[in-house]
Amino acid sequence: MPISQNLMGQNLPFQTEPSSRTIISETGIFDEEICLGAIIGVTARLDRDNALIQHLADHSTPSLCFSVLKEGNFFLLVHEEDKFARLNKQLCTGLSKATSNQQIRLQAYITREDAMLAVQKRYGERLLPIEINIYAPLHFSDDVGAKLSKSHIFLQPLRYGLGERRYMNPHVLRFEGRPNDELFHYSTIPGSEEIDPNYSSSDESLSDDVDEIDMDDMFGVQLEAW
């Protein structure tokens, strides 16, 4: 049975409260796990490389996937119960507020090339460039999105881990009457109208008309001390 259009209502840009929804009687719709989007342009500090080396040996895929679990005040990357990397303090604080419900699930993805470079580095801090996917039941999507926005963390289109799940980003503007796959992403940069789904955090600029943006300011998650 199709979901009523008002069930798909999203927050207005940077709205701080979840939008209201009409509750329908079908069981399971609001418990369905969906993908809310990805946090991109962030890093995890590699503390132990044994788990990462083992994962590289066991998988030949272009990207590697790891669970992200909370321990104390920090979120850690885990492989087969081996905790080997952690996110920075400011990102952990924002994620703690947004994922206080136990049904929220996080997964981190890193390219094979970046993982190998981190393992091979012998001196200095070893950072893993990662993307973090957020999965949650449908009825938590607006609440998670609003809390992330308050922490200046904005979800982007994901490159990994969608599978058969629905993708419904709470930081995306949907217009009534348009197909669900015609999405308009909220801009996190003043003056720009849309974020290109093919955007990479390694891009030097987003547009010829937009001044160069400091990515740390844009995502608000990387300048804090570990």
UniProtKB/TrEMBL annotation:
<protein>
    <submittedName>
        <fullName>Helicase C-terminal</fullName>
    </submittedName>
</protein>
<keyword id="KW-0067">ATP-binding</keyword>
<keyword id="KW-0378">Hydrolase</keyword>
<dbReference type="GO" id="GO:0004386">
    <property type="term" value="F:helicase activity"/>
</dbReference>
<keyword id="KW-0547">Nucleotide-binding</keyword>
<keyword id="KW-0347">Helicase</keyword>
